[in-house]
Amino acid sequence: MIKKLFSVIFLFCLCAGIFSGCTQAQSSSSAATVKELYAMDTVITLTLYSDNAQEEITKVNEEIKRLENLFSATIDSSDVSRINKGAGSYVLVSQDTLNVIETALCGGKMSDGALDITVYPIVKAWGFTTGDYKVPKDSEISQLLKNVNYNNITVDKENSSVKIEKNMALDLGAVAKGYTSACIAQLLKDMGETAAIVNLGGNVETVGEKEDKSKWTVAIENPNKKDYLCKLSVNECSVITSGAYQRNFTQDGITYHHIIDPATGYPANSGITSATVVADNSALGDALSTAVYVMGVEKAIKMYQVYRCFDFVILDDSNTLYVSQGLKDNFQLADDTSLTVKYVNE
Ligand code: AMP
Ligand code: MG
Fold it and tell me: Which of 310, 345, 339, 324 is nearest to 229 (CA)?
């Protein structure tokens, strides 16, 4: 957990001198309040520009707790735990849970199953839910894989209910943070905030616009160097990164990470070091960054060309940086000569 805490914070926002992780900072135009919270197993950094920051922080805290109590697979009373315990029957859930599951199903279809929220029993077998890590036996993985299939999730919107088949279980970890950051962004806007940054453990959402109307700058971490890979100049959007470096363990000299390929039950090994998705819809962006990491460069590019609803920056294992066309004019490479950049057209 601590490892994650330090690694995710490296994906930092730079905006007029503000870095996530500070407690108070000064922008060129008006004072910003920077607040760090810890929830959803991650560090959450809020950068707020309004005079009402303290009240905003209180409300955001309440909102995060409300959503965590719905989405966490390890909180007994959460919607997700109730769905898992009620496998085989319809379970009444909140609108937020329905929204997240529908987004995850959409991401599952777009990625042809690379994102699959029914992968939970396998995530659990590897110990990623508790930190009690172990390498499961091949036989255990193949047994558990039989029940991994997002097509066996049934959503009854009219009755706000969800059903999974017996022996299945859900994990919303790949989507919940993106959904939560969108809810926080909306809450801040409802409270009158006109400019803010919400950073949920590397899921960065920019809210509104800066006072001087210039774009936000979001830096993406280079996991190989603990430095940044590139900076993106963006308007209001979300920038979401998935990578093996965010949570892993090493056993007998082999490092195993938390993003599972639902086709094999093993940590994805697609040749990608980090996958960043830029999207308007941060829940979908979160779903797709996990999916891209599993899919590998070639399939991810195909998905981008078919759906055209997101942009990406992908670092592969041979230090090539694939950057989608939509980011080309708003992309600044780090001063790192070992990186080769390839732009990808729609
Ligand atoms: P993220 O950090 O958004 O890439 O999500 C990773 C988390 O999603 C993991 O910690 C697991 O809880 C869960 N997960 C792992 N692999 C998958 C997958 N292929 N599809 C859906 N969820 C996954
Ligand atoms: Mg994700």
Answer: 339
Beta-strand runs (E) in 22-107:
24-26, 31-39, 42-48, 91-92
pLDDT for 226 equals 75
Identify which has the larger pLDDT, 167 or 202.
167
Residue 134's CB is within 10 A of a number of other CB atoms, namely 11
What size, in residues, is the chain? 346
- Per residue in 315-345, pLDDT (tens digit) is 999 999 999 999 999 999 998 788 999 999 9
8 to 93, 106, 319: CA distances (angstroms): 30, 26, 20
Dist. CA 168 → ligand 1 center (Å):
16
SS3 285: helix
Band of pLDDT at residue 195, cut at 50, 70 and 90 = very high
116 lines ligand 1 (CB under 6 A): yes
What spacing in Å lies between the alpha carbon of 304 and ligand 2's midpoint? 16
* Three-class SS state of 290: helix
| 101 close to ligand 1 (CB < 6 Angstrom) | no
Residue ranges of alpha helices (H) inside 230-331 are 282-295, 297-307
Nearest CA-CA partner of 327 in 195, 234, 227: 234
User: What are φ and ψ of residue 208, in 5° steps?
Assistant: 70, -150
Distance 125 CA to ligand 1 centre (A): 14
Taking CA atoms, 219 is separated from 30, 202, 211, 229, in Å, by 21, 10, 20, 7
Q: Which atom of ligand 1 is nearest to the CA of 116?
A: 20
Per-residue burial over 280-307, b if 16 or more Cβ lie within 10 Å, else e, is ebbbbbbbbbbbbbbbbbebbbebbeee
CA dihedral 18, 248, 277, 316 (to 10 degrees): 110
Tell me the C-alpha distance between 103 and 107, whole Å: 6
